[in-house]
Every structure is written in C-alpha cells, then in structure tokens.
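Technical note accompanying the year-one report. For the benefit of new consortium partners, we illustrate the data format agreed upon in the data management plan: each record pairs a sequence with a structure-token string. No post-processing was applied to the example shown here.
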Amino acid sequence: MSILETYNINSEYVILGLCGVTLILLILLIINMASVSKIKKRYNRFMEGKNGRNLEEAIMEKFAAIDDLEAETDSINSKIVGIDRRLKKAYQKYSIVKYDAFSEIGGKLSFVIVLLTDENDGIIINSMHSSKEGCYTYAKEVENGEVNTMISSEEEEALKKAINFNN
C-alpha cells in the first residue's frame, strides 16, 4: 500500500502540483539568469581593455593622486594660516572725517583719516588747512583703540567710526 492510498490523495493532483512548482522554479531560474547576464555585461564593460594587473595599477594611480591632493591641501591650508596672521597686521578699518579747521575758509578742506588693524592699532592723520598759514599735518599713534595724546573732537569721531567699521 502506498502513501497516497493511505491518505486518500489523488495522484493526479500531486502531479499537477509538482508541475506548478517546477514551472515557478523555471521562471525564477530565467529571472536569475537574466540578472547574472546583466551583471556579467557590466563586469565585462568595467574590465574592458584591462587585465587584473592594469586595473590594480589604475587604482594605485588614483590613490597616489589622492595623496598628492592631500599634500597640496595641507600646503594651501598652511599658506592661508600665514596670510591670516599677516592680515591681522594690515590696515583693515578706516574712516575719514572732513571739517573746517578755521572758520575763515569754508568748504571743509581739513580732514582726519584713521587707519586701524584688526586689533585697533594704527594711526590718526590730521590735516588742517588754513588760507593764511598753509596746511599742517599731524600723525598720532593708536594702540588698542587708545591714543596717548590729546585728540580733537573730529579725531575722536573718526577714531570711533574706524573702531566700529565692520559693526
């Protein structure tokens, strides 16, 4: 007595079921073969004209190029640090105030120029113009935004403008 007879199973249903499973497996096999074919084409395109040794050389060349770029980046960064250091000592802030030093002239021919570094160090240049006595120019040193000598109201105005130049 067979198993099919013991459980009262019709053999035709078993054969149909096995045919259905075989058909599903055949479809999955075809899909898998198409997928492998696509991957193989991509691999062949990737390896086209190169053997394994040439491909390794190409990869090593790219790594060498990356190393060169890293070295160049480090060099550029160190140059930028040097430029920033020097830039702090360069005049970055300024102001100009024009005024009448003497009431007889008019036209605001006198002026004050203030030039400051990032740390508010620099100079005040005051040029006073008079039609009778000529032109007088004075320079005063500025350290940390402070002046050690007396300054006029115009010089003080120009100094405040220069200190607040970028604010």
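Partners are asked to follow this layout when depositing records. Helices lie at 3-6, 11-47, 52-87, 153-163.
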